[in-house]
Structures are given as structure tokens and as C-alpha cells.
Request: fold
Amino acid sequence: MKTVQLTEEEYNRILAFKRDLHMHPELSRKEVQTTAKIRAFLETLPDFSILPLETETGTGIAAQICGEHGKEKSLEIMLRAD
Reply:
């Protein structure tokens, strides 16, 4: 398995993002601002593509990690956070 080493700047950016999410909790199934923040964060990262996702609540996000030149990778990862 290939591991990725984060720079100090990347680590601090991710840590700040995590802390911001935890400072502004939302009620279950009403995570509108959380979804917006995650979408905005992922849109700043290279090789991420936001996918369409329809849910009853309008919350949640799906993203695809692409390789070089936008090619899809063969590995699939699914994360869920409640």
C-alpha cells in the first residue's frame, strides 16, 4: 500500500478544517453547512471531482479521486461520517 506524507502546511490545513467542523455542529440529517464546507474544501484539492448525489435531506457529498490527467483510479474508497 502506498502511503502519502503530508507537508506541515497540508497537515495544518486539514487540522484547521476538522476543528472548524467540530466548532459548528449541526443536527442529524440537517448538516447543510457541513456539506457545503466539505464541498468547498474538496473543490480546492487537485484530482477530486464532485459527483452528483441526491438524498432526501439534500445533505451529503460524493467525490471521485482521479489520477493523472483526470483518469479514474481502480481503487474505490467510501467514507461515511455521522
In short: The chain has a mean pLDDT of 82. The first helix runs from residue 8 to 23. Helices lie at 8-23, 32-43.
